[in-house]
Amino acid sequence: MVDLFDFESSNNNDDDGKKIYSVSEINNEIKIILEDSYPSVWISGEISNLKTYSSGHMYFNLKDENSQISAVMFAGYNQKLKFIPKDGMQILVFGKITSYIQRGSYQIQVSYAKETGVGTLQELFEKLKKKLESEGLFDYKHKKNIPYLVNKIGIVTSKDGAALHDILSVLNRRFSNVEVLIYPVRVQGNESKYEIANAVEYLNANYQELDVLLVGRGGGSLEDLWAFNEEIVARAIFNSKIPVISCVGHEIDFTIADFVADLRAATPSVAAEIVAKNRKDIEDKIVLLKKSMVDKIKNIIDVIEEKINKYKTCRALSKPYLIYEDKIQHIDECKEKLINIIVKIFDDKNHSFQLKVQKLNLLSPLNILERGYSVCFNEKGELVKKAEQLLKNDVVNIKLSEGAVKAKVL
Question: Domain 138-276 is classified in which CATH homologous superfamily?
Fold first, then answer.
């Protein structure tokens, strides 16, 4: 065992010949040792906390049940990948062990990667997702509408996390007079799922006047976000009578809570922007609505005035007697036409009658009598056509053209 006094004394001696490293020197030597010792290695593990930067470089952790190692894959290599890396994916990588001098940490620099399967957490995620989806927990028919304007917001998240700060900053900037009720919970660790589920249930039971609940946290690895992939949290959100907006992680992060919630926001800040309409936007919209309403009312008034002016100049209102006179004249005309029609009908009928009378006169026996003939009837009034019809001493009546005589057959 080295005595502290001797150790400090020896380090104060510049002439003892001992090597004193700077931080950079020792890190450089470690880097050389690592790269010389592990110039090429194959490592199998599950991707965790994957991040891809605009440069194209990818940084992630490879993990198994007991440990993890940092990994980097530069753009020149990952462009050749035949799959899209995701958190929870099981892969096999090839590369060299090196160190990042600035931080003094070691990592594997990956030059080749191959997908080998789904990681344990990802497998659990897919299994629960499939189960809840089959039960209908993701169906849009169960989604509740988020109110356009909210007065009271409930927030379920960590009191120390960046998510709460981001939400409150947005709310204060956009609509500072909205009421906020914060229910602080742990969002990571074994107990976090129970706290989140209990918070949602408690707010539903005791603060039903809340317009919406924001449930979420900031970004992190798949393990960090796992509380929002737990079944107990999913069912609490699904059973919530208050509309729920899930806001977990970053835009690329998806959790079970996102599928169950009534609405998914890409980030906590976006969730705050959704529920808190910008005051100026609302004021501008009110001005536009007011102008639109005034324009419509004015248009209605203009139409009514036009109709009134039209009615004012109408003959029916300005000179109603003209309508009466016109109607009387029309009636007289109709009466005259009717009389003419009746006279014509009468004349036509009379003419027809005269024609028929003339035809009858032509056939009448009276016309024959006028030419000097007479007609003889027996006492029974029967026409005598033959002499054989009469006997001696029969009395007959003879019709002449003028008058008649009674005679006796001798």
Answer: Response regulator (3.40.50.2300)
